[in-house]
Structure formats: structure tokens, C-alpha cells
Amino acid sequence: MQKIIVPLKERSYPIHIGSGLLDSLGAYVREALGEVTVAVVTDDNVAPLYLSRAVKSLLAAGLKVKSITLPHGEETKCLARLSDLYDFLCHARITRRDAVLALGGGVIGDLTGLAAATFLRGVHFVQVPTTLLAQVDSSVGGKVAVDLPQGKNLVGAFYQPDLVVIDPDTLNTLTDEFWRDGLGEVVKYGCIGDAELFSLLEAAAPGGRAALMGQIDVILRHCVQAKADVVAQDERDTGLRMTLNFGHTIAHAVETCQHYTGLRHGEAVSLGMHVMTRLTEHKGLTEAGTAVRLDALLTALGMPMQLPPIPEENLISAMFMDKKSFGQGLNVIVLNHIGKCFIHQTNVDFFTGMTTL
Ligand code: NAD
Ligand code: GLY
Questions:
Q1: Which of 153, 173, 193 is the last residue before a domain boundary?
Q2: Same domain, 224 and 285
Q3: What's the CA gap between 131 and 310, in Å, rounded?
Q4: Which of 76, 110, 131 to mutate to test the pocket of ligand 1 (most atoms within 8 A of CB)?
Q5: What is the reported pLDDT for 333?
Q6: What is the CATH number for 67?
Q7: C-alpha closest to that of 275 among 314, 249, 311
């Protein structure tokens, strides 16, 4: 069992990581929040697998429990389902001293977090992430949101959880698709700040998912610690937190041009890291040999290495329409070498030729 603290100015919070922790969930919630009512939010894939265990543990700790199961998938991260959650929380008579608990992936975490941030102007919030992506990324750091028809994550808030409980055993039931999705973000942490994690992944990758699961506690600790460190220094995403976007500028452009079909987000991030590092190595910004090493790991992990056939000018214009671009400029994350990165200001010309390297 491992415990990582996210040290924030206003309020720090613990992240517990360990095999089987789902059965101790109630004890952690009670320790952190006292004798509260817990409103559990989950989806229809996760509910048959883990809801009864979570509820049993909460009840065993003497807590009152209500639950709601929503349809799975990104479509659930919308205003209509947020409104359904408000109905549920009213019906469950949740007060400001009570808690809302997200049991599921990033979709359930983001939606439930926004409900927690806004219902009664804020109730307690617990994250119990069950996908690799949610365990290493979305459950930590307090970004909560829903999508609008006009775009992803357009309505949201910064609202930190009171507690995160991560049980890596839940990853055993993930499909290979969603497992690979999370791996994109795991490799990202190795690239931007953790050469030791990158080496561990290089050693385990040839053994496939089983070998990586054999090291999952260490992998999760590295990733969660990295995210906690960045969030502690830049909670509101005004500087350092931008480094978490390594590979994401090109990824978002690919996703936009493909209307979010074809590739999972983690696969797009993987392609983004691959293309960006080849480009910046070519420009002399990144140490020679970095791209070959990154490509070898991504290939061993089964990540796609070929950009979809999208005209380069379409990709570039999508990048500069992204909400993170300013005027003609765009900040991107560039690797010095594996384990170290910097923020680099670019313009449109920077990306010319990126699809042909
Ligand atoms: P998801 O929540 O849709 O989960 C993926 C799929 O796996 C779903 O079908 C879900 O039902 C299923 N599932 C979840 N846990 C399972 C388990 N243990 N076993 C079997 N199936 C399981 O997607 P995701 O990839 O976890 O998250 C993506 C979302 O996260 C996006 O909306 C993205 O915008 C958001 N996100 C948020 C942040 C943040 O900082 N808040 C960061 C990255 C991504
Ligand atoms: N997923 C990026 C962030 O939390 O800032």
C-alpha cells in the first residue's frame, strides 16, 4: 500500500494506491470525511464489476450510501447527465457535509467532479478511478468538466477531490483498447520528467500487458507522484502544468480532423509524442537518439506509429485553432532528452514538414 499526498495551499489530500483497496474504501472515506452519506456515481460497465463491493465496504464502515448508474461513454459527459446527477443528489438529500464518489473512468470522474463542485456550491468529492487513464491522470489534479456540442471540456472547474483511492486490480477487467489508451499517458510521464519510469517501461514492454501489470504498483506510484508534483506547483494550469500536454497539441489536431473517430485519445497522444520528437530532434532541440528510443518503446507497447492520411495544412490549422494557442503563437512541450522537457514557443512555420520526417 502506498500513500501520496497532493500538497496544495488551501487543502492537501491523500491518494491511496494498493491491490484490493476497493474493499477498504469505506474505512478511507470515514477516516477522511467522518460519518457522511456517500452518493456513488458509476457507469453500466463498471457497476456489475465493482459497485456492490464498493457499497458493501462503505456500509461496513457505518456510512449511508445511495448510488446511480449512468450509461458508459464520452456522450455521458454532458449537461443532460449533469442535470440527472443534480436530480439524484436532491433525491438522495445530499448536504454540504456529505460526499459524492466517482467510481469509474475519466468520464464518470469528470462529470461527477463537476456535479460535486457545483451542487450546493460544493460538496465533498472522492475519486475511485478504475481505468489506467483515470488512475494516472484524470483522478488527480481537480480538472472536472462536461462537453458541449461545440467542443470537449468546455464547461468545467478546478475542484480538487478530498481523497483518491486507487485499486490496480480493477485494471484486470479493462479491454486492451482502454489499457493501451492509458499507456500513452504513462509513457508521457516517463518522457517529460522520469527517465527511471521510462527505463522500467522499456524493460517490461516486451512481456506485454502481464509484465506491465506485474510492475503496476511502481508504475502507478511514479505517474501519480509526477502528477501530484506538477499540480502542487501549478494547480491552475498557468505554467508548469502545461508540460503534461506533451504530445497533446498534435494529438488534439488529429482528433479534431478525424472528428474524434478512428483513434483513442491515448493512441493520438502516442502519435503526437512520436511526430513531435522526430521534428524537434531534426531541428536540433532534442538530443540525438531520443526519437529512436521513444519509437522503440511505443512500438513495443503496440501503439500506432503512422499518422492517418490528413493533409499537413489541416493538422497545422487545427493546432492553431486549439484553445491553448494565442494569436499566431503556440506553446508546445519539447523533450531535451528522455526524462526532461521544456516549454517552447512556436509559430505555424515550426511544424512545416512534420508529416514527412
Ligand atoms: P471512460 O471513463 O469512458 O472509460 C473507458 C471505458 O472503460 C468505459 O467504457 C468504461 O465503462 C470502461 N471501464 C471503466 N473502468 C473499467 C474497468 N475497471 N473494467 C472494465 N471496463 C471499465 O474513459 P477514460 O479513458 O477513463 O477517460 C476519458 C475521459 O477522461 C475523457 O472524457 C477525457 O476528457 C477525460 N480526461 C480528464 C482529465 C482530467 O484531468 N480531468 C485528464 C485526461 C482525460
Ligand atoms: N491532464 C492534464 C492536466 O491535468 O493538466
A1: 173
A2: yes
A3: 30
A4: 131
A5: 97
A6: 3.40.50.1970
A7: 249
Q: Percentage of the chain surpassing pLDDT 90?
A: 92
How far does residue 91's CA lie from ligand 2's centre (Å)?
32
pLDDT in tens, 20-79: 999 999 999 999 999 999 999 999 999 999 999 999 999 999 999 999 999 999 999 999
pLDDT at res. 325: 63
- Report the distance separating Cα 265 and Cα 180, nearest Å: 10
pLDDT in tens, 196-247: 999 999 999 999 999 999 999 999 999 999 999 999 999 999 999 999 999 9
281-339 pLDDT, tens digit per residue, is: 999 999 999 999 999 999 999 999 999 999 999 999 898 886 566 666 899 999 999 99
Half-sphere exposure of 205 (CA within 13 A, CB side): 22
Residue 316 belongs to what domain range? 181-356
Length of the chain: 357
Do 304 and 338 belong to one domain? yes
Do residue 164 and residue 205 come from a single domain? no
* Final residue belonging to a domain, choices 138, 154, 173: 173
Instruction: Give the largest CA-CA distance in the chain.
Output: 61
What distance in Å separates the CA atoms of residue 298 and residue 190, rounded to the nearest whole number?
12
Number of the ligand 2 atom closest to the C-alpha atom of 141:
4
Check: pTM over 0.90? Answer yes or no.
yes
Number of domains, the chain: 2
201 and 121, same structural domain? no
Looking at the fold, whether 91 and 216 belong to one and the same domain comes out as no
158 & 257 share domain: no
Question: Which one of 19, 44, 49, 138 would you pick to mutate in the ligand 1 pocket, going by the greatest count of ligand atoms within 8 A of its CB?
Answer: 138
If asked whether residues 158 and 303 sit together in one domain, one would say: no
Pocket of ligand 2, beta carbon within 6 A: 137, 141, 143, 237, 241, 244
Do the strands 99-104 and 37-43 form a parallel or antiparallel pair, or are they unpaired?
A: parallel
Residue type present at position 301:
L
Tell me the CATH number at 192.
1.20.1090.10
